[in-house]
Amino acid sequence: MSAPRTPRPVALVTGSNRGIGLEIARQLGRLEMTVVVAARDAARGEAAAAALRGEGLDAVATRLDVTDGASIEAAARFVRERFGRLDVLVNNAGAAFDWTAETTQPSAVDADTLRRTFETNVFGPLALAQALLPLLRESPRGRIVNVSSKIGSIDEIGRPDSPLASMVAPAYQASKAALNAFTALLAKELRGTRVKVNSACPGWVDTDGGVPPWLRAALGGNGGAVPVEQGADTPVWLATLPDDGPSGGFFQGRKPVAW
Length: 259
Known about the structure:
Blueprint: E1 10-14, H1 19-30, E2 34-39, H2 42-54, E3 59-63, H3 69-83, E4 88-91, H4 111-138, E5 143-147, H5 154-158, H6 170-189, E6 196-200, H7 213-218, H8 228-239, E7 250-252, E8 255-256
Parallel strand pairs: 1-2, 1-4, 2-3, 4-5, 5-6, 6-7
Antiparallel strand pairs: 7-8
């Protein structure tokens, strides 16, 4: 049973207890949305939500491990019973197990690393979108934003002249390419509905999540970093698109990025 529909739009942001996820939640809260801070660690999620409430924003926390089906269903049930609606889902939680000091080539990546990365970066967003899609369909302006990366762009991977050509993290890159494919496929399925689905590349945001040494070197130390506020801008823009906005695209800096 769902709760009576709350008047404010509701947004759920995964992995939003810190870094870019927290900033996305903050910016959505400033747009008069109720923000659900979804985090694997319940205490850290509640601390982040409390910090947002301290800024005058409407924020609550829920525990969510995107690799755990029972946790996904519990989070979906929490949203249904607490708010009776969901207007925005931002799949921000991600993992990069092959971001190490030494580059791992595709011929050497182990299957376990690949599976663990896909569990968080692909299967989790897919399962969560499936669980929450009934609520998003009921929204007057449902939006799904998958936080991806240009590092996973097949166009960038395949071009020798790409500024990202030196970056090699097979599990992470393949998972983001797969996430982008899921974005395009779900947008295709939902064409003609009020739900829009897009991928966003926030750029290199040097947050407390840590940056691998090879990525720092490839981007010239700190030269390529953008402030977290700027990194959150495109995901927030996609989360608040007007009715005539795009769906099924990949964007950075509010501009299309090649798949």
